Each structure stands twice: as C-alpha cells, then as structure tokens.
Amino acid sequence: MKNSTEVVSFVLSAYGNIGNLKYLYFSIILLWYIFICVSNTVLIVVIYMDRGLHEPMYLLLCHLFMNEISASTSLYPLLLSQMFSDTHEVTLPWCFLQMFCIYIFGCVQLCNLTAMAYDRYVCICHPLHYNVLMSNERVVKIILLVWIYSFSSNMFSFSFILPLKFCGNVIDKVFCDQQLVIKLACSVSALTSISDLFFGFMCVVIPFSLISVSYIKILWVCLIVSNESKKKVITTCTPQIVSLANIFVSATFHFIYSRLDVGYLPDEVQVILSTYLLILQPMITPFMYGLYLPKIRHSYKRLLFERK
After folding, report:
1. From residue 2, how far is each of 10, 170, 181 by CA, in Å?
2. Mean pLDDT of residues grouped by 10 in the chain (308 residues)?
C-alpha cells in the first residue's frame, strides 16, 4: 500500500493489456461517441427550428438531449485518451472532475425525467389546467431548479470526499467511480458514508418516488378513458418508461459492481456492466423520442425533405 502523501494519481486497471485491439476499440468508441453527439444534436436542432415544438414537454426533452451529450462527454474523451496510454493513470483533479460531472449529470437526468413525468401528469390528468400549470416560462424555472437541486446535492456529498487521504490508487474500472475511490481512502468517516447515502436518496429515491406517483395517477386515468385516448397516453409515456427502466437496470448493475465482489466475471463483462448506462442511455434517449413521438418524427421529416 502507498502512503497517502504519495498518491497523486489513480490507475484505471480495468483496461488491462489490450495490445493491438486498442485501435479497434478506439475506433468503435469514437464512432459511438460521434453518433451520440450527432443524434442528440439533430433532435435539439429539430425542436429549435420548429416553433410548433416550442412547448413545455419538448423544451424539457431538449434539455434531456443536452444532458445526454454532456454526460457522454464526461466519459468518452477520457476513455479514448486512455486507449493509447501504457500506465492508464489519471491525476486526482481530473478523476474528481469526472466523478463530479458523471454524478451531477446523472442527477440532472433523473430530475429532468421527474419534471417530464409531472408534465405528462398535468397534461393527462388535468388537461383544462395545463396551460396555467405548465408554460415555457415555468419550464425554464423548473430546469434552473433541477440544476440547483442537483448541484447542491452532489456538492454536499462531494465535499466529504475531497479531503480524503488515499492509501491505494488502483481503480478496477475504466473510469473514476466514486464508490471505488472512497474504498481507497485510508479512513472513511461516518459522515462520508452518510453523505453518499444522502446523495442516493436525494438524486435517486426522491425522483423515482415522484415519477412513480405521477405514473400511477396517469395509469388510473387510463383505466377510465377511451381507447383512442389510451393510445395517445401510451405514445407519449412509453419513451419515458423505457428510459426509466434502463436507468433502473443500470443502477442495479452499478450497485452490484461497486459494492459486491464480481471478480469471477470476465473482464469484458465487468467493463460493460460498469459503463452500461453511459453507453446505452445516450443512444436510447434520441432513438425512443425521435422515432416514437409523432410530432418530432414528422417535424424531422419535414425539415429534412421538404426544405427548399
């Protein structure tokens, strides 16, 4: 074990020795990152160009696309740079910055999905009051609140990690993970452990609970409306439900990987489990919303094929 004063960088050991495969992996990861940025950017442009989409739901959706690009940027550039590194070392400041960005963007995503669930709840359960309860001005305030809430929750938890002294520097992942970094500390106070649980409660439990309440009420309304109205509800809510289901699966993977011994699994499986959310979610979001929501799909086709 190293003395705490000597630890100035962490080693991402999950890369291992990939040899000449690094060129193939680099190409695949780079193309995937480009696809994420392009697909999300295209839908942002579609929403921006079509004034008919300047509605609360689509403004929240545009914010979600921006967050997907930001979350991906917190992972992929470092991932790409490490492909050609022999030591796979990351300095403490860069490691802490990546952890902070990944966690805050994750919190923003769940809070944004909570706002979208509330928007659908008001639209479906209280349609006559929708224009009063939801407006573009109010959406801007909601987005600002989401960022303040996410930043405050993450900053509180992160403030207990920054002062830690480390007696180890090997992280068994391809990116800096907060749980594994805490395990490398020489000593962890009870407040540090509590702060981590606090972040999980504020950014996972509360958003999931509010989303569940919204969709339970929406489901109740679906039981008493006509078949045509049910189809409209299913069309608008399905992408959100798919996103939440994927986040739930990835959160389960993250919990298992960070807290349990998974050394018996093949290295490739461990890497996929640890990066599952940041690999699939940024592509699932534009795919589901871009293809499944009729207004966005029609607007995209109109801008692409009908412009002279």
Report:
1. 12, 11, 14
2. 62 78 88 94 91 90 94 92 85 91 93 93 89 91 96 90 87 85 85 83 91 88 73 76 82 68 64 79 86 79 67
